Structures are given as structure tokens and as C-alpha cells.
Amino acid sequence: MSNSSIRDTFFEECEELLEALVEGLAAMEENASDMEVVNAVFRAVHSIKGGAGAFALDRLVNFAHTFETVMDKVRSKQLAVNEELMLLFHRSGDQLADLVEAARDGRDPNAESEAAILKELSAYLGDVESEEEIAFDAAPLAFDAAPLALDLAEPEPATEAELRRFDIRFCPTPALYANGHEPLLLFDALAELGTLSVTADLSRLPEFDAFDPEDAVIDWRLTLLTSEDETVLHEVFEFVDALCELEIAVSDDPVAAFDEELTDNLTSPDLADQGGGAALADLKAPEEAAPPPPAIGKSTAANAPRDEPRGPRPTLRVDLDRVDRLINTVGELIINQAMISQRIEELELPAVAHLTNELEAYKLLARDIQEGVMAIRAQPVKPLFQRMSRIVREAAEATGKKVKLVTVGDSTEVDKTVIERLADPLTHMVRNAVDHGLERPDKRGELGKDPTGAIRLSASHRSGSVFIEIADDGAGLNRSRILEKAIEKGLVSPEAELSEQEVDNLLFLPGFSTAAEVSNLSGRGVGMDVVKNAVAALGGRVSIASTPGAGTTFTIVLPLTLAVMDGFVISIADQTMVIPIASIIETIRPNPRDLHCIGTDGEVISVRGAYVPIVDVARNLGLSGERADSSGVLLLVSTEGQGLTALRVGAIHDQRQVVIKSLESNYGAIAGVSAATILGDGKIALILDPDELVKLTPAAIFLPPASSPRPELRHA
Amino acid sequence: MLDVTEAPTEAQFEFITFSAGDQSFCLEITQIREIRRWTPVTKLPHTPDDVLGVMNLRGAVIPIFDLSARFGLGETIDNERNVVIVAAAGGTTIGLLVESVSEILSVAKSAIQETPDIKSEAARQAILGVISVGENMVRVVNLDAVLDTEGGAV
């Protein structure tokens, strides 16, 4: 493994840790006294620090260390969590995320905010912090872990008569620790052989002032009840033989004595405070007594046996390319299955043939595989939602409003690409909700609302689509102002009679911004039209619902996967192509009376009083130079550049879901074509991109390809 | 990738020979994924004449080039023996329409001669070397040159 791939792994892990951190902080807000949660946050920060140390990311280490130290004070109950501190923790978490990102991209992080937060954090630390803090910061971690997984509590029933008792004295030398050995592991191995009891001999423990962390001062007395041979015991210590003093003696004492002793220990109510407790606590001590192992982050491992159930579920990191290849192959399997079914039907076999049953089973299996493979690409929206909590915090700070973010359904799974490409529009909408949606706290108070505004972010699966809602409990849309503004900007004519919904949708028009004054936050010239386009690019749509005084809800509806799309199968010249249904407003079978010519070549159709230009798809694609006759079907589309346009195509054959295949991977981009798909008969059909299509002019075909450079084939 | 200079001297190279535009060509066998019968392809708009279109190769969309047209030898004439050679280079898979496939040629490295010093730079780029087989001269196709559409037809 090369260093850079280890580094990559570190940053991948950082992402998970940061996620755990945000999650933990959110949980702390609910219940700051839950030590499990506080520990989880501490561990996340600590692990990032550890890993960062290994890569000499000093700034990251420094910041994480300060953060961790404050966190530790909370853990040890020296510091009570209040709202202010919680806010600082959130900001520290954000800053940590920034620093990780900066370190990953090799950028210079924002020193100003870092310094500010560091200063605030340090304010909580007082002045006791010093150099030794780093060396000793693992100590509280180790000692607060009370019960350790030693099988003391399970005295095995002494059924075997051959059980013998071994008394072991084990005195490690410093060299044992220096070589990376761990007594606990040895004891674990012994515990597997039978019933083990461990006592630490602290008699050699020096005064604290004389304490040498590199020295090994703890000896162990172990009692093992086992049916195994003595040689087996020696095997356990085989690798540390020369690094310790070891005495193994078979005790003549019968088994009963041991049992008694053990039971005694177990029933003793003072176990935790006396012998047992001390032994357990000391069992951890070698961690500190031993020289710090080179692998940083080891101290978190001390807690590992107990923490496992709380950790993330085991996952497998797979190269995305591999998954996509698998999806491709499965797509082909589905097509192949459809073709076989068709062929067999054509054979008109007698009905007795069992083939139909098998074929049906094959079909179901193929679908199962497809669903399973698609699910690999799916990811929960949780990380995306977590990012939004930061946006809300920052927006609330900038506007002086109090906002609470509620997320619902963050385990809803969406295609990975959707998640990636949804981040920007969602950020924008959440900012808008805070900035424009919610009222100021004083105004909310007047209205009898909770001064803290609520923004609800929810995700759910409904009828094969993903619904994402951003709802605020603010004032609702001010429709009369929207209309006023739209008229003022000339976006609608003053005479227009618009329904409420039509007014709401004015927000999506390019160049629309309702904020009376352009605030620092939103209104940077990025309007809702950008959001709409981004969502449309994912094959989805946005809608608004608003109730005056009660709030506004934006709903984003997205397809479950980007690999599949609803399309019309159409014919253009002599080719079969697919056009996305999402882009089509309506289909028109033109009445010759509505068609008009403009100039020599232009053609328009009158649609309810408006004249809409007609674009002949076949000509724009250069498939037929001649002007098509006026037969065929017109598809009314709304395009980015040209507004309403009617696309002339030969005929519409079918409406179906098609699997999207990239053209660019083996060839290159082609103007007017977004991708390709494979039809049921195995043939390839091109998927048209209406926005690009209308930009092409028939004349462009005959120009040298200077304007559209020839596709670059290689990936280089 | 075919490497004429570094291979061990006595190593045998295997080539598949084919004809395109009435000339004999060959490609090293390791570059060839499969050979398929010609089936009509889906045409692509706004592409040069030698790009015939795209074909479905087990779920992947691969472009098909007319090798004869690519080398400026005129379009391949429709023929029952026409085949598509599916070749891969540098992570890209493409199909080459040729008139017909002839045979497998096994030659020692020494049998591959350097491309004679001809005037046309483009042609020198497209041909890695030549092998003489009986009275015929077989041209070793430089797949990279075929892939490199920036240079235009060679």
C-alpha cells in the first residue's frame, strides 16, 4: 500500500468520523449528560487527531487537540455543557471539517476563524494545560472504562476431573512493551484455555514523581483453571519468553480451592473498589506504562471491546467503476432475458412445455439482481442532511435568527450522484428558508409563535420516486409582493390573471429575487431558477406549497436512480431515438391551418394564440438535409435559451423506462445527444437533449468541425 | 501495446490479418477483444464519414470506425464477409469495420520491418511496421493513431 493510498484511507475515515461527530453533537444537544454520547464525540475528534498526527498535519492535530481537551473536560464533568458551549462545539466541528478538507486538498485553511475558535476553546481550558497534557491525555480515557471484558464472571462448571490449577507469575520487562506486545492479548489467549483470574502486583509501582513512563513496573499473578497441558501455556508466552520473567507452577491445591476463591471474589460487594476493581484498572495501566506505541489512535483501541456495538456497521469500500460495470452487465442481462422471452414466444411451443415457468423465474431473478445492484449505488441522505445543519447554523448566525433544524427520514437512500449534485441546490434552498422564510424572533413572538423557527428537512420514497421536502414554519410566500415584483421586472404582464400556484412558480423565473434588500446570505444573484435547473438536470422537479402565516414547503421529486429515465421512443428520419418525458410539456398533432412560414426557412405553429418556432429534429441532427413534410408530431418543450419550442419528430412509438448509457466513455460528446440507451431488441437508440438540440442550426452541419471539436477518444 | 523495440528477440508475435480498402493490415492479437459479424449500427449525428455509428457490445456503447475510410482508402463496400474487429487500447474499446479477416500470423520480432521511409507523415503514424508474407506486405496498424481522432483522417 503506498503512502498516498493510506492517506486516502485516512481521509475517507475522517469523513466517517466527522459524520459521527456531527451526529454525536446533535445527540449531545438532546442530552448532554449521556456519557456514551460525549465519549463518542471525544473519540471521533481523538481519532482524527491521531491519524492527522501520523501524516504530520500539524494544524489539524493542534486544533483537534484543543477541541479534544475541552471535550475531555466535559467528559470528566469539570465543565458543564450549556447552549453557548454547544454552539462552540458545533462551530469547532465545522472548523475541524474545514481543516480536514483543506488538508486533503492541500489548501491553506481559513486561519482567521480557526484562530477565533481556538481562542474560544482555550478560554474553557484555563491555564493548567501544558506540554504534558499530550503525553497524559489518554489517562482519563483508560481509567473511566470500568468493566473490561475479562471472563471473570463466568466460572466454568468444573465438570472435567482433569482440571488443573496453574499459578503464573508474569513480570514483563520494558522491552516487552517496546516490542509492541500487549499483556491483555496474552491474557485473552489464556482466558480461552479455561477460567482465568488476574491480579496485578503493584508493589514495584514508584512514587508519582519517580514514575518513568518507559519502565515496566506492574507484575501479574494469574490463576488459570484449565484441562490443558502446561506446554500449551508456555506456547501462549512463546513470543515474549525472553522479554519477561515467567513462572508457571502447577498447584497441588485441588480445584475446589480455586472455585472458592473465585466465588469469593465474585460475590464480594466491594469488588469494584477493592481487589477486582484495582486489578481491572491496572490492567489498563500498561497502556500508559508502556512507551506510546507508534500507531497513534491506539488509546481509542483500549475501549474497543466495549464499543463495538456502537460503531458503524461493517462496510466494504468498492471502486465506483466496478459497480457501474456490474450495473452495465446486469442491464444487458435484462435485455438479453427480454430477447430470449420474445424468441421463445415466436417459436409457439406447445403449452405443455415447462419453459414458461423457468422463463418467468429467470425474469424474476434478473430483476432481483438488477434491484440489488442498483441498491449498491444508493446511499442514505444522512450526510447531505448533516451538511445542512451547518448551513442552517451559519445562516441563523448571519441573520440573527434562531433556527432549529429537524431532519426526518435521513436513512432514505438515493443514488450517489443525486446526493452529490443535490448539495448545492439544497444549500441554497435551506439558506433561503432561513433568510426569507422565517420571521425575525421578535416578530415571531408577536405572532405567538415559538421565537425559534423550525426548518424541517425530510426525505422519503413514494411511488418509485424520492421526495425531499424543505419546510419552514415562517410567514409563507407573500404572493402580492411576488406578483408586484414580477410585473416590475417585466416577467409577467400587468393584466395577467394568475392562480396562486402560478404566482408561486414565478419564483423559479430567471432573474427573480424577492428580498427587498440584498442580504449577505441569499440574493447573490443566484435565484431559484438555478435550483430548478439543477434538479431538472437530475430528472426531477421542484414544487412549492405555501400557506400565509404558516410557512412554505418546497418539494423536490427525484427519480430513484440516474441510470433509468422515462422517455418517449420516437422516430426521426429512419432512426429510433428517445426523448426524456420530463422535458416535454405537451405533444401536438399539428393542424395545417396552425402552421405558418416566416421568411424562406422559418416555420412557426400557433399554440393558443402564441407563435412557437418549430425545430426539425432530423435536420438539426443532420440526418436529412431536406425539409421534412409537415406530417409528424410536434413536441412542445421549454428550453433554457429559447423558451417554448416545438420539436418536429416523425412519430411517437412508445413510452418506456430506458437504461441510460454514456456515449462519452468510448467516443465523446455529440451535440444534441445526451446519452444512448439499448432498446429491447438490442439496438442502440440515442437519447436527445432538447436544450442542446434547439441550439444547433441546420447550417452548422456543413461547417468544418472547428466550432465543435472532434471528440477526444482517449480518457487521458 | 505492441512494442517492436523492447520485446525479446525470439519471441513470436501473433497477428490477425485482415483486408481493408484492398490492402492487407494486421493487429496484434492481444489488442483484439473479439470479431463480430457486421450488423447495422446506430448512426451518430455530426460525425465524420469514417465514424459509422455505435454498436451495443454487451451493454457498452462502442463506436464503430470504417478502417478503410479512416485510412482514406474509400468506404468499405458492403460484403457478406465484412466483420467488425473489436479492439481495446488505453481503456477505450472501439470497433473497426474491415472487408474480411484472413488468418493468424505468427512471426518472430525480427520479421517485423520498419515502415519504409515514405513521405506521408500521417501514413507513417498509422503504420507501426510491415511484415512480408509471401508476395504480400502486411501493414501493422497503430491502434493509437486510429483512436487519435484529433489528427483527422490519415
From TrEMBL, chain B:
<feature type="domain" description="CheW-like">
    <location>
        <begin position="12"/>
        <end position="152"/>
    </location>
</feature>
<dbReference type="InterPro" id="IPR002545">
    <property type="entry name" value="CheW-lke_dom"/>
</dbReference>
<dbReference type="Pfam" id="PF01584">
    <property type="entry name" value="CheW"/>
</dbReference>
<dbReference type="GO" id="GO:0005829">
    <property type="term" value="C:cytosol"/>
</dbReference>
<protein>
    <submittedName>
        <fullName>Chemotaxis protein</fullName>
    </submittedName>
</protein>
<dbReference type="GO" id="GO:0006935">
    <property type="term" value="P:chemotaxis"/>
</dbReference>
<dbReference type="InterPro" id="IPR039315">
    <property type="entry name" value="CheW"/>
</dbReference>
<dbReference type="InterPro" id="IPR036061">
    <property type="entry name" value="CheW-like_dom_sf"/>
</dbReference>
<dbReference type="GO" id="GO:0007165">
    <property type="term" value="P:signal transduction"/>
</dbReference>
